[in-house]
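Data availability (excerpt). The following record was deposited with the supplementary files.
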Amino acid sequence: MTLGGFQSGFSARKVPRSEVKWEQFLMCSHGCAEVIQLISHVSGEVEFELCKIEAERMGKVLLEAAKTESF
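Predicted structure:
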């Protein structure tokens, strides 16, 4: 299932863990059944994979960074 894209040139999709491309680099130590893949618009290749738990953590970090003032 494709979930949408980002201006940075990536789209996201959710796949079963059995479809992970880079198991050795997967950001998930929780045994999650589904994985989110970031796909490059340029190459069409999977560039990044993480589970929902790690995606939510990353989202919080990015939102907090967006709220802070630059130095």
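Summary of structural features: DSSP finds one helix and four strands in the chain.
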